[in-house]
Amino acid sequence: MSRRGTASLTPKSWINVMIESSPARFALTVFTALILVWTALLSLPFASSTGEITPLADALFTAVSAICVTGLSTIDMATHWSLFGELVILAGLQIGGIGVLTLASILGLTVTHRLGLRQRLLAAGDSNPMRMGRGVSESQAVGLGEIGGLLAAVATSLIVIEAALTLLITPRLMAAGYDFWSALWNGFYLAASAFTNTGFVPLQGGLDPFATDIYLLSVLGIGVFLGAIGFPVIFALYRYVTGGGWRAHKRLGLHAKLTLTTTLIFVIFGWLLIAGLEWNNPATFGSESAGQTAFSSLYMSVMTRSGGLGIIDPLEMNGSTMLVMDMLMFVGGGSASTAGGIKVTTIAVLFLAAYAEARGYTDMQAFDRRIPNEVLRVSVSILIWGATIVLLSTVVLLHMTGKPLDIVLFEVISAFGTCGLSTGLPAELPDAGKYVLAATMWAGRVGTVTLASAVAASSRSRLFRLPEERPIVG
């Protein structure tokens, strides 16, 4: 399109052109614009409890952390913000949790009572960014014809799960001494923070008073787990349960099976390692009973996957445990979920490719299904992009702060994986360091596959192939 034609476009026409030409770049634009708007709102004097203007670096960091559902903070979340500020943060984490384009599609469906092809493609791209490329096969976890059902599942699960969590958390807070309205408000805040895998805690003292409370921690853990498996999996489980149970086994697709299996493997893997490495550490689990140690380590394994509602100071852990948690945070949760990281399905595909290569198979297989090689190429790209982002951010922050590698690496991976577990380093960072960590959160939440799709949207195919020559690898 010519410059003259572009300049004459109305805002609506410009948006339509952006959606059709590059949905990934449109998503990045909207996501970044939301962060800027939230930064402006949190910078207002009445957004803070003291009526003072929040410094730009702290407002931007909090806005990114909320929209990217990370949970890291440079200020005290329990005392700094006014009611208006808390409402802005809650709205941000809800929008970030369900996805910007998904929310737009839900609002459009609510207003017009119909879902056009453009809205279906937008929502489909939010549930699977690989759709934003060209020539994508429709053998997807959720087909275009099922997008309306997926949107309904997203809205329903958000409302029902957060309401149920709120009802379960509120009585416990009342028993702890909070009045009804304070318990209800903080209960809803914790419910939203858990399901969206954000990790913000509005309570003074955080979760320290409830560090051994099996009831409250179990509720929070369930909320985080449900948010981390992803809306497509929740949708698939709903169809599975309502479609005949075990007799409808084939209705549970490959993506749901792969996500649930790999998630459980990583939860158990993290549970056993954290318990085994910390059971005799007097600063963490050394003084607890065997049962409490088993429960606390399981809870931390779930939270390390992206929840961020920690009950143990990472600085008190052994270095080996922090490294295990680094790995869990880097992997993250399920695709199209409220969790971050490179996603469990990415790791599953890479392991399946290695297994297929070791057995001499031409194709990757799982649950009697063949996985196309294009999924492997995207998985490798995600791993490389993610590792590169973590490496660059770690080097920059190491140079800025002079802190030990294990602490800086922990914070960077927590930011990239939008986990929210912290050693307290963000509050000590200079403004430049806060911007670096905010950019890491942005890159982790937007998703490396979306970044790759945005770059690849303008790629052109070649009409020729170069002569083949194989380098030596390994």
Automatic annotation (TrEMBL):
Keywords: Cell membrane, Ion transport, Membrane, Transmembrane, Transmembrane helix, Transport. It is a multi-pass membrane protein. GO terms for biological process: metal ion transport. It comes from Leucobacter exalbidus. One of its GO terms (cellular component) is plasma membrane. The keyword Cell membrane applies. InterPro entries: Cat_transpt. It holds the Pfam family TrkH. The keyword DNA-binding does not apply. It comes from the Bacteria. The chain crosses the membrane at residues 26-47, 53-75, 87-111, 147-168, 180-202, 214-238, 258-277, 327-355, 375-398, 435-457. It is found in: Cell membrane. This is Trk-type K+ transport system membrane component. One of its GO terms (molecular function) is monoatomic cation transmembrane transporter activity. Its main location: membrane.
